[in-house]
Amino acid sequence: xxxxxxxxxWGLLGGGALIVGALVAWFAxxxxxxxxxxxxxxxxxxxxxxxxxxxxxxxxxxxxxPTVVGFLAGAIAYVAGNLVLAKRGASRRKSPGSEQVSEDExxxxxxxxxxxxxxxxxxxxxxxxxxxxxxxxxxxxxLAAIVISNVPEGLSSAAGMKHNGRSARYVFGxxxxxAVACGIAGALGCLLLDxxxxxxxxxxxSVAAGAILAMVADTMIPEAFQRTQxxxxxxxxxxxxxxxxxxxxx
Length: 250
What we know:
Helices cover 82% and strands 0% of the residues. By secondary structure, the protein is an all-alpha fold. Helix 1 crosses helix 4 (109-131), helix 1 (3-27) runs parallel beside helix 5 and helix 2 crosses helix 8 (232-249). The model has no long low-confidence stretch (mean pLDDT 85).
């Protein structure tokens, strides 16, 4: 099987975790504290995967300068996009309740929330696809981090959509579209950069990593803190060390 096809399938798997979370939210009432706790755990997992896999590998293969430049560029690009979407009603897109803006409160907020979820998911899938270019198979720690973080993201955001009266067709249409987009992002990341210079791969990997870290800090941790409060740091730390153990055992 071609490498880019594998990357697309892995990206689709990671994005599919969003659909799993949305299904749970639609058919079961999960306590907000549980959702927040899993989100805090997922944040720790993502931070660990960034530090010990994505950024570390980028620096080793492409050097420090491309890694730093790409990392900062990714963070700036994410924050800029997030600011635009926040003004259109997507600032609390990961909230499971009434904090999420409804279409009645702000026209176009549904589209903004969908685009915000896409903004959150694309860097992860691109990074996952690029991890295959090392020739050592998919990055297990990165894949685990994406799946673990996407389930509570899909659960929490879908619960908020349902609370605000959005239809099942809308909710699952959004998450299915994003899962497919994640697969495409993974495939393109691998296809377009296969054979590229190490510095180029390092830069793009770092762009994705910087965007992911900005997403964790801007959306996941604040939403988790709303419910877990003083335990957020402890839960995130647990996620971090679990992901570190996975990366070393893989």
